[in-house]
């Protein structure tokens, strides 16, 4: 079974721009969660999508948004980029059931200049 | 408000010995706990999990212990191998009835494990 894939792996943007990151979950998984990892804040939950609906959301500003398609692939968008948005963005997939492990992709390294 | 804490930033162990990584939590709604291993420039890799109805779960060299009264869990790796050198994260989730935490894991800050040959 193929693992979780994320594209692109690396991105460099400038302040004020917007960016879209993509995540393809493990086949059969219907839940996709997104996390931001920074040296200062660690791994922080952004949001989770299940069957094309946002089911849960973390404490991030509205500049961070996402969506999920009918094939369970998910995209995350960050608008009006700030320097502090530089981070590793990870997506994780799971079946979406209770007490189910999440499997992570390799991440997208975003650098904002 | 850090609900999951790993108080040891690093741990150094000799090959063949036991590695014990610790994690504390404050949210009594957490009822499922997981350990992940992470190498630089890669996503976390799932290792082992435990439900709050259990106090121990084993998988090969990895054993997780849960002490609910102390809100403490630990990961034991026996025997430790140089390839185990990585950052280890504990994570927790709350799936109790009425909870709204589906798909959300709360992570500790991680412990860097170094296993010396």
Secondary-structure map with pairings?
The complex is a heterodimer of chains A (113) and B (117).
Chain A: E1 5-7, E2 10-13, E3 19-24, E4 31-38, E5 42-50, E6 53-57, E7 64-68, E8 74-78, E9 87-94, E10 103-104, E11 108-112
Parallel strand pairs in A: 2-11
Antiparallel strand pairs in A: 1-3, 3-8, 4-5, 4-9, 5-6, 7-8, 9-10, 9-11
Chain B: E1 4-5, E2 10-14, E3 19-25, E4 32-38, E5 45-51, E6 56-59, E7 62-67, E8 72-77, E9 86-93, E10 106-107, E11 111-116
Parallel strand pairs in B: 2-11
Antiparallel strand pairs in B: 1-3, 3-8, 4-5, 4-9, 6-7, 7-8, 9-10, 9-11
Commentary on this structure:
The complex is a heterodimer of chains A (113) and B (117). Chain A contains no helices and 11 strands. Helices cover 0% and strands 53% of the residues of chain A. In chain A, the strands form 2 sheets. In chain A, strands 2, 4, 5, 6, 9, 10 and 11 form a 7-stranded mixed β-sheet that branches. Chain A has a 4-stranded antiparallel β-sheet with strand order 1-3-8-7, with no helix packed on it. By secondary structure, chain B is mainly β. In chain B, strands 2, 4, 5, 9, 10 and 11 form a 6-stranded mixed β-sheet that branches. In chain B, strands 1-3-8-7-6 form a 5-stranded antiparallel β-sheet, with no helix packed on it. The termini of chain B are far apart. The interface between A and B is medium-sized, with 28 and 27 residues.
């Amino acid at each position: 079974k193929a693992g979780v894939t994320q594209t692109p792996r690396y991105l460099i943007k400038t302040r004020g721009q917007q960016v879209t990151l993509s995540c393809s979950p493990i086949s059969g998984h219907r839940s996709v969660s997104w996390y931001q990892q920074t040296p200062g804040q660690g791994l922080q939950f952004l949001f989770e999508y299940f069957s094309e609906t946002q089911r849960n959301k973390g404490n991030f500003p509205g500049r961070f948004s996402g969506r999920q398609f009918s094939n369970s692939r998910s995209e995350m968008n960050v608008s009006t980029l700030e320097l502090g948005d530089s981070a590793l963005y990870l997506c994780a997939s799971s079946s979406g059931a209770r007490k189910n492990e999440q499997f992570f992709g390799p991440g997208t390294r975003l650098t904002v200049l | 408000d850090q609900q999951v804490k790993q108080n040891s930033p690093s741990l150094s162990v000799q090959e063949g010995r036991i590695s014990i990584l610790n994690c504390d939590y404050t949210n009594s709604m957490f009822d499922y706990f997981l350990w992940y291993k992470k190498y630089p420039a890669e996503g976390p890799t799932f290792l082992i999990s435990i439900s709050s109805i259990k106090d121990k779960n084993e998988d090969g060299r990895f054993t997780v212990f849960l002490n609910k009264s102390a809100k403490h869990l630990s990961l034991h790796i026996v025997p430790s191998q140089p390839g185990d050198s990585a950052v280890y994260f504990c994570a927790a989730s709350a799936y109790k009835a009425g909870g709204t935490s589906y798909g959300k894991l709360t992570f500790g800050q991680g412990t860097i494990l170094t296993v010396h040959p």
